[in-house]
Amino acid sequence: MKRDLTFILCALAVLAAAGLALDPGGYAMRILCLVFLTAAMAQSWNIMGGLAAQISLGHAAFFGIGAYASTILQVEAGLSPWIGMWIGMVLAVAAAMLLALPTVRLRGHYLALATLAFAEACRVIANSIGITGGPQGISVPYMGNSPAMMQFSQSGGYLPVIGALFALVFGLFALISRSRLGYMLRAIRENEDAAELSGVSAVRVKIAGFAISAALSALCGTVFAQFMYFFDPDSIFSPLSISVRMALVAIIGGLATLSGPLWGAVVLVVLEETARSRFSALPPGVTPLLVGSLLIATVLWRPAGIVSLLPAPGGVRPGWLKWRKRNA
Q1: Which portions of the chain are predicted below pLDDT 50?
Q2: From CA 154, how far away is CA 151, in angstroms rounded?
Q3: What are the start-end ranges of the H helices in 229-259?
Q4: 171 in Cβ contact with 4 (< 8 Å)
Q5: Angle subtended at Cα 49 by Cα 224 and Cα 2, rounded to the nearest 5 degrees
């Protein structure tokens, strides 16, 4: 944890330096914002998916609720997203409770399918009602450079907002992982039946974890909506592009670790953007193929994720370096 915390602090320092060095309206600045926003999304999922091994494919629902709540309040009532994001978080927590109560006893692929169905239901509902814009989607009203409305004329203006979101989500994850709640989530991950016999209320712990994870996912959804300016139900509630993406980033980087989602976001976002720019002339599907190949390689070669390649505290070499030295 100490090594991970040091890395996160260094990442924030790099973020601050890059904000001063890069062109505020440049492509590199946009990529940097997407990396840290994606890392925050994955870390929100990692609270339940990593610490408790509760594989949820329904986090797109909470993400979309945060995006739609803040945007609809801005469009219909002129309410600032700085206020709307709190309402979105409350609604996401209520949705998490609605989802958790009937599914809290489910495990493994049964839980994954139940949460997937919930996100799909949210997508269908959002496509059917007018206030969301239906299939046509909804646009954030552009007000120019207006920090009070969480709007900036260039991508660089969003960097402090995304940096603060990143610090908040990663800071809460660090606190939770060292707290009583974090240890109970790990106990459920290792053996839920044994944890309950030891006095852990699995139902309460799971509900608490889902609520925190949902609230942070909704917060990420609000920032994402303001950064992208337009979204529709098929994209914002998509289990494939949102829920699975959160899980992929955390798995590639390292489940249940503090720095893993950031490593995963760096690799995944850079790979996607490079593939889009280099292979744009090729048939569709090249980027998903590369991402899928990366996931398969990670699971087979390094199941613990990219973080397992880093030197352990005390200068201990990671396994692949030991193997290389032994066979040199």
Answers
A1: 314-328
A2: 9
A3: 233-236, 244-253
A4: no
A5: 90
- The structure's pTM equals 0.91
Cα distance between residue 71 and residue 85, in whole Å: 9
pLDDT for residue 1: 63
Q: Please state the domain extents for the chain.
A: 2-235
State residue 289 phi and psi, 5-degree precision: -65, -40
Q: What's 280's DSSP letter?
A: T
| Residue found under tokens 């040199």 | 328
Give residue 10's pLDDT.
87
pLDDT of 310: 74
Our CA dihedral for 104, 108, 114, 115, rounded to 10 degrees, sits at 80
**Residue 129, both tokens:** 């009602």
Q: For the range 317-326, what are the long-range contacts, defined as Cβ-Cβ under 8 Å and sequence gap of 24 or more?
A: none
Residue 138, φ and ψ in degrees, nearest 5: -135, 140
pLDDT of residue 50: 94
Which amino acid is present at 269?
V
Q: What's the pLDDT score for residue 282?
A: 61
Predicted confidence at residue 316, as pLDDT, reads: 44
